[in-house]
Amino acid sequence: MYKTIRDFLFRFDAEKVHGLSMQSFKIACGVPGLKALLKQQFKPAELPVNCFGLHFSNPVGLAAGFDKNATYLDILDVLGFGHVEIGTVTPLPQAGNDKPRLFRLPADKAIINRMGFNNDGMNIVSTRLKAWRNRNTDSRMIVGGNIGKNKQTPNEEAWTDYVKSFNALHNEVDYFVVNVSSPNTPGLRELQEKDALQKIFKALQHDNVKYARPKPLLLKIAPDLTEGQLSDICSLALALKLDGLVATNTTISREGLSDISRTQSDRIGAGGLSGRPLQNKSNEVLKFLHEHTGGNIPLIGSGGIFTSADAKQKLDQGATLVQVWTGFIYEGPGIVKKICEGLK
Hints:
- Helix 8 crosses helix 10 (279-292).
- By secondary structure, the chain is α/β, with parallel strands linked by helices.
- Strand 7, helix 6 (158-169) and strand 8 (175-179) form a beta-alpha-beta unit.
- The protein has helices at residues 2-9, 14-29, 34-41, 73-78, 122-135, 158-169, 194-208, 227-240, 259-268, 279-292, 308-316, 326-331, 335-343; strands at residues 49-51, 54-56, 60-62, 83-89, 102-105, 110-113, 142-147, 175-179, 217-221, 244-247, 272-275, 299-302, 321-324.
- The strands form three sheets. Strands 3-4-7-8-9-10-12-13 form an eight-stranded parallel barrel, surrounded by five helices. Strands 5-6-11 form a three-stranded antiparallel β-sheet, with helices on one face.
- It is built from 13 helices and 13 strands.
């Protein structure tokens, strides 16, 4: 059924369909009684996980970039996600890159995006999160906050942007992910270097300990780093006692694409590639991180997860939790239930 709907929706602009589909679900959840029925329909198996001091009802989460502005949390809770990462959130609202900026490669179950941290800004997102929590006091879904810098902020001042969003969202999210690995903000990936990361995380840790309940701090990394850069990140994560690492963001590589998709990709141009072609690369990074941190830092595996077998592969490589994004687009709203049933 979903495949038929998906094939129809894939005829239209990807970003517009994304908004329309989620808005339709949102309206459905507002119909008396329908929300409860949908929640029962998509209810996944219980697979509890305890990670960085938080209790997850299941290991399957939604990666950042899908619900940038904490607009669809009601729907995502209904669909059974154990956690949802909102954002990337920046201090100031920004429109992101020019449209079109989201593209499908159906032949390879892949997506290219160059969104550019389009979001409503930390204050609006914080207010929206607070309202959602007040309406859903019984929700068990964990909400993470993925934070980044505004496009116009120079890299030498980037740490100030991360601190601003961190403090603005601190009371409303359960954990934080520092995003320095998106390929769609010029110069952002330069912040993955050791000195820049130290500056950001030391500033965040300085503020974090002032709160009665400090929040877990994680780092999301790119799949395109060299082994030397990955080693530096492992050393830094251990030295700074980071609470976790997310592996990985999208890739700038076009390796592994079919001829059909490569032709499409050449026409599309720049952007981060996600989905099936990212799977092996993200698994390699995940395995490297697990081995070089001695399993002492929790890992969230992301990249190319469509089935329970894909998720299990991440867990076997050292992940404690997994996140879907492109798989959600291609497999549909039942993906969490299917993965959890397979894992159980």
